[in-house]
Amino acid sequence: MKFKDHFSSQANDYAAFRPRYPDGLFAWLADLAPDRNCVWDCATGNGQAAAGLAAHFTRVIATDASEQQILNAQAHPGIEYRVAPAEKPGLPKDSCSLITVAQAAHWFQLDAFYQCCRNVLEPSGLLAVWGYNLVEIDAEVDALVLEFYEKKVGAYWPPERRLVETNYRELPFPFSELPAAEFQMQAEWRLDDLLGYVRTWSASQRYLAARGENPVESLVEALRNCWPEPSEKRPVVWPLFIKLARL
Fold it and tell me: What is the DSSP letter of 148?
């Protein structure tokens, strides 16, 4: 089955505008892993999580089914990038102490992926799956972004997005979950950063393809009153939700 590719067409923007995960997340995972020899970052995108993992693991294998995403990935001497689907990474049995999936598990053929995890993880190895929902800035901006999300491009979200909206509570996860620490991504953004990020949404891209117009232009108009100085930087956060298991 061909993978659902919602991001290759905007891989450059994805690399520029997607947020970075906190260093504490990777240190926490490294402490929990049985060793720090090898980690598989599945559906790595442009390597946002892989780069953080490389500070803690001797070897990082980062795969993505999108060749375009891999071409735009962050080069790092400790990361080996490969084009491969989540369900068939071509990794040896018992070869990794940790498998990570950042903001991508909802696209997978989960039964096949989980079976692959059972094979690839060494004894007592960890599987960590996480994601994030809408950005949080302030009440006025958040309300406008939510309105855009639900009303402007709402009809163009793939059905799998529902799993993100429920913070992965409905994501099938047939393992005994371990308690997860709390983390959030943080950044300081200008208005153009926010708009660039929203352009990377799969729903924004599907709207553009279907209707031939950029839906984000309407959000620019809506934000002018509450963000009058576009060069002003504002703190932005995304709380993470995490599912963790030791297989």
Answer: I
